[in-house]
From TrEMBL:
Regions that span the bilayer: 35-56, 129-151, 163-180, 186-203
Flavoprotein keyword on record: no
Keyword Membrane: yes
Protein name: Phosphatidylglycerophosphate synthase
InterPro entries given in the database record: CDP-OH_PTrfase_TM_dom
Taxon lineage: Bacteria, Pseudomonadati, Pseudomonadota, Gammaproteobacteria, Chromatiales
Length: 216
């Protein structure tokens, strides 16, 4: 059974600046698939700067956290624009879903797992891997619902935009707390929030799928 069309509802899609930037990219025939790949590039860059943080001086470490937060926002900007260029701009391709989904699935753990190593605390890496795997699980359950002929479920409390907002806030707060040695605990608590929230999200989405299937 074919999956229903799925597109995450985003308020930013209707903003004037997003529409103007999408039109600019369309006018230059920038392929949506290339924008999707750029999102993965920003995620990889964000991962790299986080992994450099533990051995950096305090001032540099704060700058690296801020750079990682910036990479997260650039990844999200690419996620916004690839769909707008493909759908509203009419530049979509038959392989668009492939380019849209695979970079997204790689980008989440790339921007979550390194924070566990950056925090420098016991169990930080393990918590980060748990949060990263749970993030992938939420996306898998959403896609599973679509494969079963249901509308894809983007509900939270820790859907992708919420995860990335939590990571961005955590990295900025960690940068501000470097001088007091609070960056590690801040990142650890951020990962704990994402892990718990992603687990709840997976449960809610699975229950919604079960209810929809039973109601058929």
């Amino acid at each position: 059974m074919p999956s229903p069309p799925a597109r995450r509802p985003l308020k930013t899609r209707d903003t004037a600046w997003a529409r103007a930037l999408a039109r600019w990219l369309v006018a230059r025939r920038v392929a949506p698939n290339h924008i999707s790949l750029a999102s993965l590039g920003f995620a990889a860059l964000g991962a790299a700067v986080m992994l450099l943080a533990p051995t950096a001086s305090s001032g540099v470490r704060a700058a690296l956290y801020l750079a990682a937060a910036g990479c997260i926002q650039l990844r999200l900007l690419c996620n916004l624009l690839d769909g707008m260029v493909a759908v509203e701009g009419g530049l979509g391709s038959r392989s668009g879903d492939l380019y849209n989904e695979i970079p997204d699935r790689l980008a989440d753990p790339l921007l979550i797992v390194p924070a566990g190593y950056a925090c420098g605390l016991a169990w930080g890496p393990e918590l980060a891997w748990t949060a990263g795997c749970l993030a992938l699980l939420t996306a898998y359950i959403r896609a599973l619902g679509g494969s079963l002929g249901l509308a894809q479920d983007f509900q939270g409390p820790m859907a992708k935009p919420h995860r990335m907002a939590a990571m961005t806030s955590g990295l900025i707060t960690a940068a501000l707390g470097v001088a007091w040695g609070l960056d590690g605990p801040v990142l650890f608590l951020t990962l704990l929030l994402i892990a718990v929230g992603a687990a709840l999200t997976a449960i809610r989405r699975a229950r919604a799928i079960r209810a929809a299937l039973e109601a058929r």
